[in-house]
Design brief:
This protein is mainly β. It is built from 2 helices and 32 strands. The protein has a single domain, classed as YVTN repeat-like/Quinoprotein amine dehydrogenase (Methylamine Dehydrogenase, Chain H, 7 Propeller).
């Protein structure tokens, strides 16, 4: 897999380091790999998985509500965003191959699974009574959401870094092996698969009858949802790392050159393109006719969906690699190499609402 990744053009030095760390250094039990923060949210809290702890932060005031575990555990480095689940549980995947359900109210463990033989980079996805866990060992594991017992597994050709997308009774799964897979949610059996000739590091987007996937082959590719037939593809300047955002017949995507484009989903025609002047790894986020984008260099930009004009821009500091989350009217971003691990903004105005800095004793 490393050989195939090295052949791609315009490889940013930072991502070579991250790829190397994920695939090589993390295999050494004596080295705790450095992750970037994984964040998610519900109507009341932001959940943050980063390095050796999971934290819950109050969405309104930015105050820490709880963290787990109480004592740092270097073997439990976390990378994937936590996933809220039924009955107040938070599903967490770790870099030491574990998945567990954390009871948020008292920070107890409801269940734990060690079925994965690889690191968990993509967030587990709750789909009905199942938790879908992508693993760097190349398998997608379906676990019972209440007990953690394995229901089925599906084996891809290479590692899975991305969460699956689920619609109805079908799972759409992307892989570093260049393939998009459509699977039965009930059984995990393959319905179709398509080789896109480029590693796919993030989850696909579903837009009506179309599946959209960005590749490290410098392309955004549209597939027919029922068959996997390629409908169209667009060449980009650099890797398309994140998941496209979709709405009103338009897909918004970015690449590592810093270019942001809006394209019509029906035919792939470009509506507008903007250059933000910094590498973009995090997925775009679309809400209320605004596209939110983060650059690695540390800028949060809100663009008008219709024409790409800048509505506001803020710089919380540090490197912005994690996908942003929107809870109500609050946009939350997480930064590396910054005093504040989280910053929350009013999504409409860009006004800073609060910032969160972990206490030193917890680090």
């Amino acid at each position: 897999m490393l050989t195939r990744l090295k052949t791609l053009p315009h490889v940013p030095r930072a991502l070579i380091a991250m790829t190397f760390a994920a695939l090589v250094l993390a295999g050494c039990s004596r080295i705790a790999p450095t992750s970037w923060p994984g964040i998610s949210a519900d109507e009341a809290s932001v959940y943050l998985a980063f390095n050796e702890a999971v934290r819950a932060i109050d969405l309104i005031e930015g105050k820490e509500l709880w963290f787990y575990p109480q004592e740092p555990d270097r073997a439990m480095t976390m990378f994937a965003p936590p996933s809220p689940a039924p009955e107040g549980q938070i599903i967490v995947g770790t870099y030491n191959n574990k998945v567990f359900a954390l009871q948020g109210q008292d920070q107890s463990i409801a269940w734990e699974s060690d079925v994965s033989r690889g690191r968990i980079v993509g967030a587990p996805v709750v789909a009905g009574d199942l938790v879908l866990v992508p693993s760097a060992d190349g398998s997608l594991y379906a676990l019972n959401v209440y007990s953690g017992s394995q229901v089925w597994s599906f084996k891809a050709r290479q590692g899975l870094w991305a969460s699956p997308a689920v619609e109805g009774d079908t799972i759409y799964l992307t892989s570093l092996d260049h393939h998009v897979y459509a699977l039965s949610l009930a059984s995990g059996k393959s319905l179709w698969e398509k080789d896109l000739s480029g590693a796919i590091p993030d989850k696909p987007a579903i837009a009506g009858d179309v599946i959209l996937a960005g590749t490290l082959g410098n392309k955004l590719i549209a597939l027919q949802k029922q068959t996997g037939e390629v409908l169209w593809e667009i060449k980009s300047e650099d890797w398309v790392w994140g998941t496209p955002a979709v709405g009103d017949g338009v897909a918004y995507y970015a690449d590592l050159s810093g270019a942001v484009s809006a394209v019509r989903i029906t035919d792939g025609d470009v509506v507008w393109t903007r250059a933000l002047g910094g590498r973009i790894i995090a997925s775009p986020l679309l809400a209320d006719n605004v596209v939110y984008l983060l650059t690695e260099a540390g800028a949060v930009s809100a663009l008008a969906a219709k024409d790409g004009k800048t509505l506001w821009q803020e710089k919380p500091g540090g490197k912005l690699l994690s996908d942003p989350v929107l809870a109500g009217k609050t946009l939350v971003v997480s930064a590396l190499e910054s005093e504040n691990l989280l910053s929350a903004y009013d999504a409409q105005s860009g006004d800073l609402l609060w910032s969160y800095k972990p206490a030193e004793k917890e680090g």
